Amino acid sequence: MSGTPAPRSQAGASGVAFLLQLERRLRLLQDTGEILSLSAQLLGQRLGAQQVACFDIDQTLQCPTLQHAWSDGLAPGAAGEYFLGDYAARLADALAAGQALAVSDVASDQRTATPAALATFARLGIRAFLNIPIAKEGRLAALFVVHSGTVRLWHADEIELAVQVSERVWSTILRAQAESRLRALSASMEMQVAERTREFGRTWNVSPDLLGVLNLDGYFEHSNPAWQATLGWSVEEIRTTKFFELIHPDDLPRTHAAWDAANQGQPALRFENRYRHKLGGWHWLSWVAVPEGEKVYCSARDITVEKKLEADLAARNSERERLWRSAQDLMVAIDAEGCFVAVNPASTAILGWLPEEMLGRSLFDFVLPEDAAATRLALAHVTQEAMPSFENRYRHRDGGHRWLSWSAAPEGDLIFATGRHVTLEKEAENTLRSMQESLRHSEMALLQSQKLEALGKLTGGVAHDFNNVLQIISGNLQLLQMTLDDDPLAAKRIASASAAVERGAKLSAQLLAFARRQPLKPLVTDLAQLLRSTEELLRRATGESIETRLLLADDCWRALVDPHQLENVILNLAINARDAMEGQGQLSIELCNSVLGSDYAARHADVAPGDYVQLAVSDTGSGIPADLLDKIFEPFFTTKKEGEGTGLGLSMAYGFLRQSGGHLTVDSVPGHGSTFRIYLPRSLEAETELPLQLDGPVLGGKETILVVEDDVQVQTTVVDMLRGLGYAVLRASDGESALAIVGSGVPIDLLFTDVVMPGKVASTELARQARLLLPQLAVLFTSGYTQDAIMQGGRLEPGVELLSKPYRREDLARRIRHLLANGRHVTALHQYRAQLAPQPAPALPTGRHILLVEDNPDARAMTGELLAMLGHTVQAVGTAEAAVPLLGTPGLELLLTDISLPHMSGVELAELAARDYPQLEVVFSTGHAPANSGVLDPAARFLVKPFTVEQLQQALQVPS
Question: How far apart are CA 519 and CA 796, in angstroms?
């Protein structure tokens, strides 16, 4: 067997024709199996072979796989895997090199004559074969084999034909495979395109965004269904309407700008505008437009809801901003360092600080130091969780502070807090607490006041009865004294008994003062002057070892008070202070103005808010224990040793000041001393002249007096005393009996009646009706216990004359004589004035310049009028003190003065005038006989009351 075949005659043109026919037939096939099957059949028939096959070479040639085979039907074999063993190993290199192998006889060829190979060839019925390799990229990919069942010499043209066929078959297979892959790829691409087209169609149709293709003329050539869903316009309506016609007029400028940018080639545009809905209204659209060639590809998202949300958010932000700016509460944001990063304008209204003045500063620059520790704790707490309530004080710009109630919560790195201004609430709370405390004090004060009131009623009643008893004793002692001859022992005993009556009367007066039933004669008083006038008396009462200081403020207000009773109160307080200091220490009496407000009044039930004059008496003594302060004003209570005090001094002071509309407090520190503060209501009236102090001789008269007294013993005593003075006396035991006497026509000059009367007719009603019947009747009340019948606010009504029980015979005589004389004098003056009024007397050729001094207002007014009607020039005053500075008046010729005057008497005034103004004439006016007037100058001139006009004119004549 040779590797070089011999030439054959059928090769040449016929071989070429065969190959062309093969190519034509193969070109129609696309399946690899069909290509191999046809190729094997035609090649086998052409070569007269028993079998033609194609092996796939997978890994190695030792195990090729028979893919396709043709057989003449006689040769055995089938597709499958074959094991070629060592034979394949020996042929592998040559085949891999692309060399065709021809074996004419497998039994004689050394390459195949191995037992294993021969067994395989025998089984397959192969005696000769051709192996045509097909190499791909240097590797054996396939192997064409032509088998012969007989020994056969292979010619070169046969080998060449087999090679040509194998190459054409392989290229056809490769083409078919490529076309198959291409068809598959094309089919896959078509499927993908179709799928993507379907996806795009679905996206186009279902997209909520408005998609469209816009031409350069401004018309949408294509639009998706979202246009109609969003704006109500159909595809056709969108296609035939220029898009500018659908845009909101306000948005046209920016839309034109975007359109111009697209026409100028800007690659991508983003803008917003509003499109008109078919049914009306506008929708906001957010556009993305991409120009490409002659088209603009557009996508728009409906942002109407977002725009509304933005508008709502902007409105809410604006609302929050307005709330932030207009809130009355302080709103702040604080960072981790405790500094303000945001402050609303309420800071100015609440704290006086502008927001920019607080920004960046620590909150502790504004928190009061007293609240700093609590604020730090609250700040540490609120960094962890919200704090619903916390209060502290912030500095105000004006230097004060404001209370703020905070609610705060953390958010991120900041703390947001709202502070409500609660200063007024805090002040209200404090006021409420103060009011509650004041109420408690008021309740205690009320209980104490009620207790003292009850004691006052009791002591007042006791004092009334006691005064009646004292009056009986005193009156009888005085009557008894008048009957004594020269019995020294009896006189001594009567004097001792009278002294006891005086002490009893003083005790009774103190009880009445505590009970606020003593008769007061309040005057508008300059307390500073009163204290100066009593300073010497106070020093004598306290002793030389006590340093007494008067601290009197300038321009102290005046007060309406009974000056004599106030002197007693001050003296009592000074003596108490002396005793508390045990004769050694300092006594201070201070006087100043004081305004008591509603807060003070709320704490003291017996005080009304207003202006007061405050008089404070302070000592450096032992003080008063706190548990005794509520008892010191009770009658008979005393901290002194037994026998050293009656316990009525402070109770008398308390009652007198309450009766005067005033107030008394005490502050005391045991071991350091006490301070008693007297508050008396301010008076805006002018200072009042002091009342007349009656003195002089005890004189009686011949007038008729009606005595009205329900106590028989007192009545008898008084009647005896008056008859002893020479008066005619009528008596009655009640008001009705007295009215019957007055109505009987009996002449009566004076009514002397007790205030407290039994029966239907009260003493005041008795006086009123009696004066209706007897207009010139003088009325004098007496009582040991005054009542509201003759008092206003604890003071005697104007014009009421009262003689308090027990009284002395001398006091009774002087008071009655004074009332009767003044009454007759004023009556006579009225009569003379009435006589002169119709036909005034011609003025004296030389009218005189006269200074009139008269304490009785009616007498002063009437006398002044008479003098003026007589042609004189008159200056009229009520006291000697007021007359002193007028004595030097230029042209003053005559001083006409009453003798009985308050403080300085008319006699003392005349002596002063005689000394400083000897040329000044003096005429005394008196209700007493000149011999009993107390004037020692025998040349003195008198005008005895009541006087006639002629007597007045005669007294004023210039002495010859």
Answer: 6
Reading the block at residue 618, the tokens are 């302070």
Buried (b) or exposed (e) across 246-257, using 16+ Cβ within 10 A? bbeeebeeebee
Three state DSSP letters for 473-529: HHHHHHHHHHHCCCCHHHHHHHHHHHHHHHHHHHHHHHHHHHCCCCCECCEEECHHH
Is-contact 778 819, C-beta < 8 A?
yes
Which of 824, 752, 755 has the alpha carbon at shortest distance from 789?
755
Average pLDDT rounded to a whole number, residues 105-113? 87
Residues 6 or more apart whose Cβ sits within 8 Å of residue 711: 468, 472, 754
Closest CA to 397 of 342, 360, 343, 358: 358
- Cα Dmax for the chain: 219
212-221, 642-651, 930-939, range with the lowest pLDDT: 642-651
Which three-class secondary structure string do you get for 720-764? HHHHHCCCEEEEECCHHHHHHHHHCCCCCCEEEEECCCCCCCCHH
Helix, strand, coil shares, percent, the chain, to 5: 45, 25, 30
Can you tell me the distance from the alpha carbon of 37 to that of 153, in angstroms, rounded to the nearest whole number?
25
User: Encoding tokens for residue 36?
Assistant: 């191999």
Residue with tokens 């007359």: 883
Identity of residue 933: S
Q: What average pLDDT does the structure give for the chain? A: 80
Q: What is the pLDDT of residue 843?
A: 43
What does the chain come to in residues? 960
929: left (phi over 0), alpha (psi -120 to 50) or beta: beta
- Summarised one tens digit per residue, pLDDT across range 529-584 is 888 888 888 888 888 888 889 998 888 898 888 887 888 888 888 888 888 888 78
- Return the CA Rg of the chain: 72
Amino acid at 842: P
Give the SS3 label for residue 327: coil
- Round to whole Å and give the CA distance between 96 and 90: 11
Q: What is the DSSP string of 579-615?
A: HHTTT-EEEEEEEEEEEE-HHHHHH-TT--SEEEEEE
d(CA 320, CA 331): 12
Instruction: Please give the full DSSP string across 443-456, using - where no structure is assigned.
Output: HHHHHHHHHHHHHH
The DSSP string of 818-841 is HHHHHHHHHHHHHHHHHHHTTSPP
The reported pLDDT for the residue numbered 612 is: 93
70 φ, ψ (degrees, to nearest 5): -120, 145
Q: What is the DSSP letter of 872?
A: -
Specify the amino acid at residue 371.
D
d(CA 49, CA 165): 14
Task: Report the alpha-carbon distance of residue 502 to residue 496 in Å, rounded.
Answer: 10
Instruction: Identify the weakest region by mean pLDDT among 370-379, 854-863, 927-936.
Output: 927-936
Q: In this structure, are residues 345 and 329 in contact, taking their beta carbons and an 8 Å threshold? A: no
Helix (H, G, I), strand (E, B) or coil at 179: helix
Give the span between the Cα atoms of 277 and 311, in whole angstroms: 20
Q: Which residues are paired to 791 by β-bridges?
A: 796
